[in-house]
Amino acid sequence: MGTVLNVITVLIGSSIGFLVQSRFSENLKKQMLQGIGLVTILIGVQMGLKTENILYPLAGILLGGMLGHLLKLEEHLDHLAAYLGKRFASKADSARFMRGFVTASLIFCVGPMTILGAINDGLTGDYQLLAVKSMLDGFTSLALAAALGAGVFFSVFTIIIMQGGLTLLASQLSAFFSPDVINETTAAGGILIIGLGLVILEIKPLKIANFLPAIFLVPAIIKLVQIFA
């Protein structure tokens, strides 16, 4: 239910943003993106500070980056964005479409509310945290769509796959998600969020999508250490 609500609010927010984007100058759109980038970095720092053992996020990020590189996750995400851009945007707007899709997908699917909210929804059926996330994502999608266009609209597919998949996984592995697992996974997500903020601000062209396996590897690493320690 939480993911369904999230999809609805992003669809509404991005639709409104897309409709009003023509009213905003390019300088204003750039200013909005810079604001989103700065706040994104702050959120990432807050998430990263939740770690109690930095070695877990470090191992997850390194191994996740290697796995993502081998699986070419960034390339696949770019190809998906390019395919959607060709279908639903003009040739001149395809690059902007891709940026909107990739940026929105990562913002909506890597944050702490995604991880904690999906786990709570899957374990107990309590989607209150995802409901709050949905409202925030609705406003964020409005700003992103106004700045980056229709690509933000299609990020709902990523929400369904990533957030919905995590909810289903949590419902099947309730004993797996202990407080330390949640904290270290959130910290790993925070590192990715900081990287995303740098990308939004155009400081560094990082391939953030390649690091996404870290979200799933960190819990596995913690459990393996607990078993063999």
Walk me through this protein's architecture.
The chain has helices at residues 2-20, 26-48, 55-71, 73-88, 94-110, 112-124, 128-148, 156-172, 179-200, 214-228. It is mostly helical and 229 residues long. It has one domain (2-228). It contains 10 helices and no strands. Helices cover 79% and strands 0% of the residues. The protein is globular and about 60 Å long. The longest helix has 23 residues, at 26-48.
Which terms summarize this structure?
229 residues, mainly alpha, 79% helix, globular
Q: Helix-strand pattern, N to C?
A: HHHHHHHHHH
Helical stretch tally: 10
Relative strand content: under 5%
Strand segment tally: 0
The radius of gyration is 17 Å
The N- to C-terminal Cα distance equals 38 Å
The helix/strand class is: mainly alpha
The low-confidence parts are none
User: Helicity range of the residues?
Assistant: over 70%
- Estimate the mean pLDDT confidence: 87
- Tell me the count of domains: 1
Global shape: globular
Largest sheet: none
